[in-house]
Amino acid sequence: MLNQLTISALAAKLATRATTARAAMQACLDQIARVDGQIHAFLSHDDADALAQADAADKRLAAGERGPLLGVPIAMKDVLCVKGQPANCASKILGKFVSPYDATVVEKLRAAGAIIFGRLNMDEFAMGSSTENSAFGPTLNPWDTTRIPGGSSGGSAAAVAADEALATLGSDTGGSIRQPAALCGCVGLKPTYGLVSRYGLIAFASSLDQIGSFTKDVRDAATVLGAIAGHDPRDSSSVPRPVPDYAASLGRSIKGLKLGLPKEYMIGGMDPEVKAAVDAAVKQLTALGAEVVEISLPHTDYAVAVYYIVATAEASANLARFDGIRYGARVDGADPTALYSNTRGAGFGPEVKRRIILGTYVLSSGYYDAYYLRAQKVRTLIRQDFLNAFEKVDAIVTPTTPTAAFKVGEKSDDPLQMYLSDIFTISCNLAGIPGLSLPCGFTRSPKLPIGLQLLGKPFGEETLFQIAHAYEQATPWHGEKPPLKG
User: Fold this and answer.
1) I want to staple 264 with a disulfide (CB 3.0 to 4.6 A). Which of 137, 242, 300, 356 is the partner?
2) pTM > 0.85: yes or no
């Protein structure tokens, strides 16, 4: 079935005209009709528009045009603006808001010929680790629909795992791409901060947010990054540097590369099956010629606390714009203060309110120096830990998550336990470095995916792809499919 193909496999068929973009798009829509009632990855999709885009791609292909993404269906997390489509961030507060413009990444994908379709479910305003915080109901894990898919980009991960799209885009503020990729058994990439434009990404925490991809294999991750990376003057944090041919790094031997295994990440409380899978992956990397050495990232213990000060402070400031005045939902009141209170009280869910309150507190008079300023200083120390480590190693290997996917509702009443789901992914965002998660095994019963995380030097994505591709080609995990039945 065309929807089960990788991007590279579909592109090869389209190039030889062995199939059509319309047939590929229709296969994805048929799969959504078959299985999305079980997992709820999509919030909406416009079938007529998707097929019209496919027909336009087929005309370009018939005219002799070729490209790795031409005619490839790619769906979007509901935090990315797509012109003419709703942009709700899985929240009630945006009401019936429709985006008037395309995000830069969407512009770039359209220019490459990709078919942009569908809005994918997420934790409201990207705040969560399970996609249970969506105002429109949770997404479920395709491997076991009694379990969560991870978050906040749970819909994006589930859609790829369930073959509803060939690839998807998501956002990663503290692990929101890598964690659901691990729990759903696909490849998730968070690029270096500044490599991919954030223009058109509805902000959660601006110094942490980064757009990345979910794909079925490492080659596809390299292809998508090559299309969406690059300088954008509309994003002040976008770095002006040339975009390399990421696919060129695939297939290179990893013999002689030195990989660091941080002792602080091999913690007590990690699921034994996760630890065993990661240990086996390290042995496989060693067998492929890499040298694995123990390293230390001494400020790791402070990462979760620092993250939830910095991220909530920035969220408090960013979400102040949702006030019921300019766009989105509005609940009237007797005066402006009552209007703000009524609108925000009805429009935001409990987790978003919790984080806004916490962020406002740490920014308030008398607490800014004690909390926010101190957190920023420790953040600098965490980044320096990584830079020091990268003087000795080419990349760092860790688990992506401490456990496989947990049951729906299992951690809903315990925010601290939920926050600790991201314990291995948060530091990457604080340091602004790239991170990639790929499958490295399964738990036995039930059969649930386990993820291996690779962390790289700033703008070191080529090395991550080189290592990930070598590991992927030497193991069977990426070829496994979840047991969904339509």
Assistant:
1) 300
2) yes
